[in-house]
Amino acid sequence: MASVKLTDVKKIYDNKVTAVHDFNLEIADKEFVVFVGPSGCGKSTTLRMIAGLEDISEGTLEIDGEVVNDLQPKDRNIAMVFQNYALYPHMTVYDNIAFSLRLKKMPEDEIYERVTNAAQILGITEYLTRKPRALSGGQRQRVAIGRAMVRNAKVFLMDEPLSNLDAKLRNQMRAEIILLRQKLDTTFIYVTHDQTEAMTLGDRIVIMKDGFIEQVGTPQEVFDTP
Ligand code: ADP
Ligand code: ADP
C-alpha cells in the first residue's frame, strides 16, 4: 500500500524563485503517474520534494496518510532512479546494487537473494561482476533501476530515466518499464518531457507549466483534445 498526497505544496528556492505553486494531487496505491512539461516547469523539484531531497516550503506531503514533510529520504519508503544513473564507478554491478542494503546491515544471504532476483528480472545477471564502465547506457540504466528495486520501496520515483539513451534503446526500455511495473506492483511517479513516454506509461498524466498543474487526466483525456 502506498498512496501519495500533496496538499498546497509549494517550493520557493533560496534565490526566491518559486518553482512549484500550490501543487494539489492525490496518487492512488499502485497508480503510475507521469509529470510532463517543458524544462523548468517544476517537475524535478516536485519529485525531489516527494523523495525528501528538497525541503517543502509550504503545504503537506502524505505517504499512506502519514505526513512525511520532516522525514529523511531513507525513512520515506521510496526509491529513486536518476537520469544520470549515479553508479559508483569503482564497484562491480553487484556491489552497486547491494550498496544500500549493506548500509542497512542486511545479512549477505538476503542481499544475494535480492540482488540476483533483481538482476534476473532486469536481464543483467551476466554483468554482475563487471564495473559500470564496461556497460552500455541501457545496461547502466538497468543497474540503476536494480539498485532502486532491491530496496523493496512502496513508491518508485523516476526522473527522466531514459533521456540519456538513444531513440531505439529508449523504446526498448520503455517497454521494460511497463513490464517492471507489472512485476513490482508499486506506485510509480515518473518525470519526463517526452509526450510519447508519458502516453505509453502513465495511468494518469499531470501536465505542468511554470510551476503550476495545467491539466490532470488519463492519456486520452489530456492528449486527445481536438
Ligand atoms: P523541470 O524538472 O521541469 O525541468 P525544475 O524543477 O528543475 O524543472 O526547475 C523548476 C524551476 O526551479 C526552474 O526555474 C529552475 O531554474 C528552478 N530551480 C531548480 N533547482 C533550483 C535550485 N537548486 N535553486 C534555485 N532554483 C532552482
Ligand atoms: P539506512 O540504512 O539509513 O536506511 P539506506 O540504506 O536506506 O539508509 O540508504 C542510504 C542513503 O542512500 C539514504 O540517504 C537513501 O535515501 C539513499 N539511497 C540509496 N539508494 C537510493 C535510491 N535508489 N533511491 C532513493 N534513495 C536512495
Radius of gyration: 17 Å
Cofactors and ligands: adenosine-5'-diphosphate
Main sheet: strands, sense, barrel: 6 strands, mixed
Ranges with pLDDT <50 over ≥5 residues?
none
Order of helices and strands: EEEHEEEHHHEHEHEEH
Distance between the termini: 37 Å
Query: Shape, please?
Result: globular
The proportion of strand residues reads: 25-35%
- Structural class by secondary-structure content: alpha/beta
- For the secondary structure, the number of strands is 10
How many DSSP helices? 7
Helix content: 25-40%
Placed side by side, the strands forming the largest sheet appear as: 6-7-8-3-9-10
Overall pLDDT level: 93
Keywords: ATP-binding, Nucleotide-binding
Protein name: Sn-glycerol-3-phosphate ABC transporter ATP-binding protein UgpC
Task: Explain the overall architecture.
It comes from Aristaeella hokkaidonensis. This is Sn-glycerol-3-phosphate ABC transporter ATP-binding protein UgpC. Keywords: ATP-binding, Nucleotide-binding. By secondary structure, the protein is α/β, with parallel strands linked by helices. The chain has helices at 43-51, 93-103, 108-122, 137-149, 167-184, 195-201, 219-223; strands spanning 4-12, 18-27, 32-36, 58-63, 66-67, 78-81, 155-159, 187-192, 204-209, 212-217. It has a six-stranded mixed β-sheet with strand order 6-7-8-3-9-10, sandwiched between helices. The structure holds adenosine-5'-diphosphate (2 copies).
Annotation keywords:
10 strands; alpha/beta; nucleotide-binding; four-stranded antiparallel sheet; Sn-glycerol-3-phosphate ABC transporter ATP-binding protein UgpC; 35% helix; binds adenosine-5'-diphosphate; globular; 226 residues; six-stranded mixed sheet
